[in-house]
Amino acid sequence: MVEVTEVRKVYRQGDVEVPALSGVSLSIDPGAFLALAGPSGSGKTTLLNLIGGLDMPDGGQITVDGRDLGALSATALTELRLHRIGFVFQAYNLIPVLTAVENTEYVMLLQGVPKKERRERSMAILDEVGLSGLYHRKPAELSGGQQQRVAVARAVVSGPSIVLADEPTANLDSSTGEGLLAMMREMNEARGVTFVFSTHDAMVMEAARKVIRMKDGRLDGDRVQ
């Protein structure tokens, strides 16, 4: 599903270069439920953003779903993100003026899915994530856990090959976080969607089938369970 080869990323602060990733290589199999784990500054979120094509590396190669991201035009990269990659952001990134069902529909709207079909699919996935009856609530009328469930529903409803989740439990209490992880694990097993998390939460690491640890922009070992 994902092949990362000798990837480097450097951020520049004035005249100072700050290395974020230093020659990272890894493979992620289809159907994985994997955590990139490490402390703040370890490079895990940077790597997640590069895999999602939200940023470009300064060296090395990233292949997602058989496509070399560095060889794609801006239009082709946008199409790949739209149709093959789902995103779950730490801050949820829901559109405040849209309801839960409208937020869930949004990616399918961009994909050109007919209105009736996208509404039916959105309501079905909201039922699946435990938000039946809350279709018409806006983000401000939902709890943090409910907003994150809408974000997950939006990420998976359009049928991506891979979902990238940045610190998905960071703003949730432990009980809500456990429920969210169980829901995503069930989706992973039932739908075959690949999930990749960036995290420093032990609960996420315990839920993942594979953990790749990062430190100072490099891999620091992995664990399979």
Radius of gyration: 17 Å
Strand content: 25-35%
Order of strands across the main sheet: 6-7-8-3-9-10
Query: Number of helical segments?
Result: 7
Count the domains. 1
CATH class: Alpha Beta
- End-to-end C-alpha gap: 19 Å
> How many individual β-strands?
10
Provide the low-confidence segments as ranges: none
CATH superfamily: P-loop containing nucleotide triphosphate hydrolases
* Form type: globular
Percentage of residues assigned to helices: 25-40%
Q: Would you mind describing this structure in some detail?
A:
With 225 residues, the chain is of the alpha/beta class. It has a single domain (2-224), classed as Rossmann fold, CATH 3.40.50.300. Helices cover 37% and strands 29% of the residues. The chain has helices spanning 44-51, 74-84, 100-111, 115-128, 144-157, 174-191, 202-207; strands at 2-13, 16-28, 33-37, 59-64, 67-68, 85-88, 162-166, 194-199, 210-215, 218-224. The strands form 2 sheets. The protein has a 6-stranded mixed β-sheet, with helices on both faces. Strands 2-1-4-5 form a 4-stranded antiparallel β-sheet. A hairpin with a 2-residue loop joins strand 1 (2-13) and strand 2. Helix 3 packs parallel to helix 5 and helix 4 (115-128) crosses helix 5 (144-157). The mean pLDDT is 90. This is Abc transporter-like.
